[in-house]
Amino acid sequence: MAAAVSAARNGQSTLLVDGHDRDVLGGLMTEGWLNSIDMNYEPTKNVLTKHDIMNKGIFSEWYNQIEGDSFDVTTAANAFYQMVAKEKNIDVLMKAKAIEPQVASDAGSAAAQISGVTLTKADGTKQTVQAKAVIDATQDGDIAAAAGVPFTVGREDLGDPKSRMAVTAVFRLSNITPERWKQFGKTIAAEDKGQGKYGINEMSLWGFDKMQEYPAVNKEKVRMRGLNGGRQKDGTMLVNALQIFGVDPFDPKSKQEAFQIAKDELPHVLAYLKEKYPDFEGVELDGIAPELYVRESRHIQGEYRLSINDLLENRDQWDRIAFGGYPVDIQRTSPKDNGAVVIDPDKYAVPFRSIVPLKVDGLLVVGRAASYNTLPHGSARVIPVGMAEGEAAGAAAKLASESGMSFRQMSASKETIAKLQDMLNKQGMDLKPFALKPAPFMENKSYEGLKTAVSLGLATGGYKNEFDLDKASNLQRMVNLLEGMRKFKPASMQGSAAAVIANVKDAAKQPLTLDQAAQLGAALLKVDAPQGTALQVLQAQGVLSKATVDGISNKQELTNGDTYMIVRDVYKKVTEAK
Fold first, then answer.
1. How confident is the model over 227-273, as pLDDT tens digits?
2. Would you tell me how many other CB atoms lie within 10 Å of the CB of residue 519?
């Protein structure tokens, strides 16, 4: 919607196509009942300005028409409709059965060219629409994939191609009266105990953490988290909390099975909820959203891939088109997993290059399928970022047409991007450059090691970015780090660090020496090193650098930071190896 409105306001004849069997605009937010928005606010120490929204423009225009960070889905649908209906340059086609990109190879270019789409309408008839630009705002990057854009799926870039975050079936509870809502507030406050972890406002609640312990009937497929609830005007509440695993987002049968899993499980969930929280007596299950909330599927490969280190360092980008600041919230990937908040960035920029896909011209990809690695996607996948990207894409279509440039050419031109940013600022966005003071952990001597560990998914800092770099590590933790690296280069790490401590009791309580760390590293790499010589051997082979070894202050008790520096050296060595 943001892309279409932006393009239309820039004078482009625009067709907005919805490829699902939906009756209203809004997609996941209206048909998936995802009615609570993960907001991005400007970093500030001033409590009075903490709600200054990062992404202005069309997102803020829409946001100002709804109730707040949680909204009534009918209000949201009406706001979407009204914004689109006002634009005389937009035609809307709902319920398209198929959207197939028209792609032709260009003998003079390494990239193919998309020239439009062939639509299969609800009645089965087909129509080909020619277009100077196509913007793929589908959740899964469907148009880009069909056009031949390269992509990864789920956590593939972390060496785990079959893993992706849980899918959620949002459900609705009835009889949420004003009196009950007030009681919810008292219960949540008592549960929170002043920690600031749980909360409630007029429209939203987050808490009831005992639900994390819900004993699922379908133990292989279901886990509950604490409730994220958004009130509706009709006295109901939509709840994002039921996590379902092993769902293939590209397989309709798999998604249908997920709905059945939810339908079977939810009566038990409600019974447990009432048992643990008497506030819910009298509340009834009142339906399941028509669409699943799929958090993760395709990540396209673009001219730039947003990295976790971009977020770790709160980096600006010269071609900024959107800003993020939401925590890197990695939800569970299996029932045995508890998820993690990797980091909580203050502010980072999303570059135009991240919506320009490789290998296909005439196409932009916005939303969660844009060019992000899986970890930063945990933050950048939120709605305000996607809508800001959509607005930028719509304006870029105008500028590309006007300048006779491809999106790829635009992405390499600072002059043209400056024009785009000027257009967007005049539309109401605020794309000023920024620079934030480095976080304390960035000034630690082990920071380069931390960057490697975080990018490999081996270190997390939580909501407070507490990496404990100067705290003591232990034998078990070092083994876990080394074994966690194996999936990235299994051919180069065929040994076993775990085998070295197989007979060690309470390895997690044993301090880690440099010699032990070297022995574990040698075992992982299958380097022949007699007892007591591993450190010298790894240094001689260029696995461990002199700077890393010399930087370890206490070689009899390594810190977490020391171990991350060792991880950096080992990873660098195996990735450089042919």
1. 999 999 999 999 999 999 999 999 999 999 999 999 999 999 999 99
2. 23
